UniProtKB/TrEMBL annotation:
Keyword Oxidoreductase: yes
A GO cellular component entry from the record: cytosol
GO molecular function: oxidoreductase activity
Tree of life domain: Bacteria
Pfam families in the cross-refs: Aldo_ket_red (PF00248)
InterPro entries: AKR_Detox_Biosynth, NAD(P)_OxRdtase_dom_sf, NADP_OxRdtase_dom
Organism: Planotetraspora silvatica
Keywords: Oxidoreductase
Protein name according to UniProt: Aldo/keto reductase
Domain NADP-dependent oxidoreductase: 17-324
Annotated region described as Disordered, given as residue ranges: 329-349
């Protein structure tokens, strides 16, 4: 098993990180993997020597954390367990964000749902411009000193926000971030411009999400066919939420489908799958520590793990780089990576 160090720390993680955003059942729009199958996926993932599992308090209304907690019971010491806080968890004004009030409540709730006494990597799920970053970093440092959290990280932060956070921790002599969780794939490459270099300078490793572009890069979508109703994009296209429909439609832009066609061509030439090509490209990119995979079935897990062992030839990497080159847009404030092209700025992970 190939383990790597996360950022400027001693934490060893597998190159594959199991994403659990789909774990849960019921009417939640992201729920697509029931508890029985989720437990099989987690067990198989760990049995193969992988140790990195990522969830969040916002995933499937908290179900994801509960499912993960029950699945790793008895194997807790094998797991580098990551979760996140920030998203709204109640109706009051202090039930969202990165304030001491909200994060303290959110951490305690996550510990309860996960059935554990500590989180290995606790991440800020987004930037909060209503809370001083000094308060956030001091609060997270308190979690570490209490033993309830081992390491801290962030998700969806811009380069400038990473710098602010690390400087705040340095000034106060408190715990810095060791990781960033950004979106990264052949259709969403804008973190290369500023964010990845900033992570390197400031000691952050990366666990990248949506390496398959929310499923677009699997090759299951094309210009001549509508997404299946049971697919993630299909569910969002038929949802009654305008923003969700717009996000799904933009993912199927002409630019993105051009990339999909090139990935299909490469896959045929190499005798492999589009999924394997897209995942291999991400794994081989400079600055990527771990790649988050989000299987909904044991079969998808098998395919994803096999794909992460594929090494693409240099000439193939160059072809994929050329077809997927992108430009950035001006910085704006927001939870998601604001340098991401508008056509690839979906909901957060």
């Amino acid at each position: 098993m190939d383990y790597v160090t996360m950022g400027r720390s001693g934490l060893k993680v597998s190159r594959a990180c199991l994403g659990t955003m789909n774990f849960g059942s019921g009417d939640h729009p992201l729920a697509g993997c029931g508890e029985g199958e989720a437990a099989q996926i987690i067990g198989a993932f760990l049995d193969r020597g992988n140790n990195f599992v990522d969830t969040a308090d916002a995933y499937t209304g908290g179900q994801s954390e509960e499912v993960v907690g029950r699945a790793i019971k008895g194997r807790r010491d094998e797991v580098v367990l990551a979760t996140k806080g920030f998203m709204r968890q109640g109706h009051g004004p202090n039930h969202r964000g990165l304030s001491r009030a909200h994060l303290t409540r959110a951490l305690e709730a996550s510990l309860l749902r996960l059935g554990t006494d500590h989180i290995d990597l606790y991440q800020c799920h987004g930037w909060d411009d209503t809370t001083p970053i000094e308060e956030t970093m001091a609060t997270l440092d308190g979690f570490v000193r209490s033993g309830k959290v081992r390491y801290i990280g962030c998700s969806n932060f811009t380069a400038a926000q990473i710098v602010e956070a690390q400087w705040a921790a340095d000034r106060a002599g408190t715990t810095p971030f060791i990781s960033l969780q950004p979106q990264y794939s052949l259709i969403a490459r804008s973190i290369e411009a500023e964010i990845l270099p900033t992570c390197e300078r400031h000691g952050l490793g990366t666990l990248v999400y949506s390496p398959l572009g929310s499923g677009v890069l699997t090759g299951r979508y094309g210009r001549d066919n509508d997404p299946d109703e049971d697919s993630r994009l299909g569910r969002f296209l038929k949802a009654g939420i305008p923003a969700a429909r717009t996000w799904a439609q933009e993912l199927l832009s002409d630019r993105n489908l051009d990339i999909v066609e090139e990935v299909r061509t490469v896959a045929a030439e190499l005798g492999t799958t589009s999924t394997a090509v897209a995942l291999a490209w991400v794994r081989q990119r400079p600055g990527v520590t771990s790649v988050i995979i989000g299987p909904r079935t044991p079969e998808q897990l098998d395919g994803a793990l096999a794909s992460l062992t594929l090494d693409l030839p240099a000439e193939t990497l160059a072809r994929l780089d050329e077809v997927s080159q992108t430009t950035t847009i001006p910085l704006v404030n927001g939870v998601n990576d604001p340098t991401r092209p508008a056509a690839t700025r979906p909901g957060r992970s």
